[in-house]
């Protein structure tokens, strides 16, 4: 990467020495743009796949579900007690 930067800088200086300043600026803009694109694209294929991301999400959801197990059990007990009270009222 450092070598590429040095090459771009050398070509930029050379362009301003040999060419009209407007043309040299155009060449430098193209060189810098190409260098930035090359730096940004150097690891474009190192990302995780869709399946890997979904597996990680599923594992997080499973852990979260497991952590809430006790709260769901308490809520279920409260709901069943409430349903029993409601059933007792309608029997009167």
SSE diagram, text form:
Elements: H1 2-18, H2 21-40, H3 50-67, H4 69-90
Helix pairs in contact: 1-2
Notes on the protein architecture:
By secondary structure, the protein is mainly alpha-helical. The chain contains 4 helices and no strands. The protein has helices at 2-18, 21-40, 50-67, 69-90. 0% of the residues are buried.
Whole-number average pLDDT?
Answer: 88
Low-confidence stretches are none
Tally of alpha and pi helices:
4
Strand-residue fraction? under 5%
Specify Rg, calculated over alpha carbons: 33 Å
**Secondary structure tally: strands:** 0
Give the fraction of residues assigned to helices.
Answer: over 70%
The coarse overall form would be rod-shaped
Secondary structure category: mainly alpha
Distance between the termini: 84 Å
The quaternary organization reads as: single chain
Largest sheet: none
User: What is the element string, with H for helices and E for strands?
Assistant: HHHH
Task: Provide the descriptors you would attach to this structure in a database record.
single chain, 92 residues, mainly alpha
């Amino acid at each position: 990467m450092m070598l590429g930067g040095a090459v771009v800088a050398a070509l930029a200086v050379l362009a301003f020495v040999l060419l009209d300043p407007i043309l040299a600026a155009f060449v430098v803009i193209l060189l810098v743009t190409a260098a930035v694109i090359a730096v940004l694209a150097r690891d474009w294929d190192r990302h995780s796949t869709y399946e890997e991301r979904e597996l990680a999400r599923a594992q997080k959801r499973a852990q979260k579900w497991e952590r809430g197990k006790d709260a769901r059990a308490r809520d279920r007990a409260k709901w069943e007690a409430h349903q029993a009270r409601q059933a007792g009222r309608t029997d009167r």
